[in-house]
Amino acid sequence: AQRVTQPEKLLSVFKGAPVELKCNYSYSGSPELFWYVQYSRQRLQLLLRHISRESIKGFTADLNKGETSFHLKKPFAQEEDSAMYYCARSDSNYQLIWGAGTKLIIKP
Amino acid sequence: EAQVTQNPRYLITVTGKKLTVTCSQNMNHEYMSWYRQDPGLGLRQIYYSMNVEVTDKGDVPEGYKVSRKEKRNFPLILESPSPNQTSLYFCASSLGSGRAQETQYFGPGTRLLVL
After folding, report:
1. Is B95 helix (H, G, I), strand (E, B) or coil?
2. Which of A2, A102, B18, B29 is the most exposed place for a label (fewest CB within 10 A)?
3. Closest CA to B29 of B8, B47, B5, B4
4. CB pairs below 8 Å between A and B: how many?
5. What is the β-pairing status of strands B31-38 and B87-94?
6. With contacts defined as CB-CB under 8 Å, which chain A residues touch B45?
7. Shortest CA distance to A5 belongs to which of A74, A90, A102, A91?
8. pLDDT by residue (tens digit) across B42-77?
């Protein structure tokens, strides 16, 4: 079965420290990978996708096909980064398969 | 304002009492989808719709029905709710035919408690 694994339910780091939210996916063809974010009291929204190769709010994510990973990284965490982060991949029917999510807490 | 709306936002009901959660989008999106979110499980797709009158089962369709009579609306129907359907429900839409490359826009969520 196609799966997305986010091994950390909770990640807590200090402001200014580097952040890495892990995401591993089951190998199947050439999936599209995404990171979605949900800030407190806001809707779930797209943060970035691997095909865009972009940096959003200082976050980047590199697709590593060898390790089947799509970890989300930011060199210097800010308090406003505190949120719930979801990794997702496309499946063979072009639907999204979601990870369980990682709650990121940035401590002042 | 372009958005996805859901109603109600909160609902407490009893086992077996039929209910409908509405979802509406004003962005002329073709694709709409329903998810449920449960602790430790992430989002799981219930049903999706590529266009009007076209609906398909997602990963967890049992106990749910949907309809897509008009482009903007995609109601989720629980004919006979059970306690295991207590969850947080999200509706989402995207512009195109549902390919995952399309950005999905989410509603605010509906928190359902079935007693």
Report:
1. coil
2. B18
3. B4
4. 54
5. antiparallel
6. 95-96
7. A102
8. 899 999 998 899 999 999 999 999 999 999 999 999
- Tokens for B84? 């295991």
**Closest Cα in chain B to A47:** B103
Query: What tokens appear for A63 in the block?
Result: 């697709």
Listed residue (A95, A72, A76, A96) closest to A84, CA to CA: A72
Angle, alpha carbons B72-B78-B80 (nearest 5°): 160
Inspect the interface and report whether the beta carbons of B42 and A51 lie closer than 8 Å. Answer: no
